């Protein structure tokens, strides 16, 4: 009898551990677009934060709140890293856990980085992964207890550039449809941009590292610099946007957010912006900074008010 109770306890503990795991799904079935065989391998370095480079197999990690807490909203998260690495926990999984605590489903996108030697037409690849990711979430919305009309995005730094690229280029055909999922809309219902890279045309305030990593040898292309200057791509259909930046950001100047705010305002797109006097660049949830630590609450208040 005692052995029976032990066996039952082990089974229960095993079941609970499985429930605690987050589902990770590949973005692409079969052939991954714009990818070629190489000897390059994905690298994960865990130090003060988890840094991922040379992404070979893009994925989404699903973080779901309990069904009792879930409000039907979901946010895809694009970590930053200058299009050179992904700050995967700092601007990814930590954000997902916070959103879950507010009843919001979260999806961390491990997107391919354009400096990888495994890629062709590198400048198209992050947007391909971003479009596919939001379509994949929309296609699984019912299964994950998500309202397919309440799916937003959040991006940090270069991840903010990718998010704003998705928010302004969601209708662009950047890859050949592969399945029924690709027939779904890639338009985010809302977006949040944290200290985002926005412009590739303003030489004074652009983040040249992100521009050069994304465009590579094509960094001098006027057409591509204009295409990826997302303040120039805003339309009346651009999703409602939430912006956060620090005035003293020396990595990505605050003017990036100001340019995007003005473009949204001029097109009549609902926009809320929070500019903090200090905070620098790359502050994640800012737990150790009293000046900034309320921005996550400001964000979730804004998201829940969208209903």
Main pleated-sheet profile: 8 strands, mixed
Helix/strand order: HEEEEEEHEHEHEHHEHEH
Basic shape = globular
Provide mean pLDDT, rounded.
93
Helix content: 25-40%
- Mind telling me the C-alpha Rg? 20 Å
With helices defined by DSSP (H or I, 4 residues minimum), what is the helix count? Answer: 8
What is the count of β-strands? 11
CATH superfamily: Alpha/Beta hydrolase fold, catalytic domain
List segments where confidence is low: pLDDT < 50 over at least 5 consecutive residues.
4-20
Class derived from helix and strand content: alpha/beta
> Per DSSP, what share of the residues sits in E-state strands of 2 or more residues?
15-25%
Between the first and last Cα atoms, what is the distance in angstroms? 54 Å
CATH class group: Alpha Beta
Q: What is the architecture at the second tier of CATH?
A: 3-Layer(aba) Sandwich
Largest sheet: spatial strand order? 1-4-7-5-8-9-10-11
Descriptive report:
The chain has 307 residues and is of the alpha/beta class. The chain has one domain: Rossmann fold (3-Layer(aba) Sandwich). It has eight helices and eleven strands. The strands form two sheets. The protein has an eight-stranded mixed beta sheet, sandwiched between helices. The chain has a three-stranded antiparallel beta sheet with strand order 2-3-6. Helix 7 (255-266) links the parallel strand 10 and strand 11. Helix 3 packs across helix 4 (158-169). The model is unreliable at 4-20 (pLDDT under 50).
Walk me through the topology.
Elements: H1 2-20, E1 23-26, E2 43-46, E3 50-53, E4 59-63, E5 74-78, E6 86-87, H2 89-101, E7 105-110, H3 125-139, E8 151-156, H4 158-169, E9 191-194, H5 208-215, H6 222-227, E10 241-246, H7 255-266, E11 271-276, H8 295-305
Parallel strand pairs: 5-7, 5-8, 8-9, 9-10, 10-11
Antiparallel strand pairs: 1-4, 2-3, 3-6, 4-7
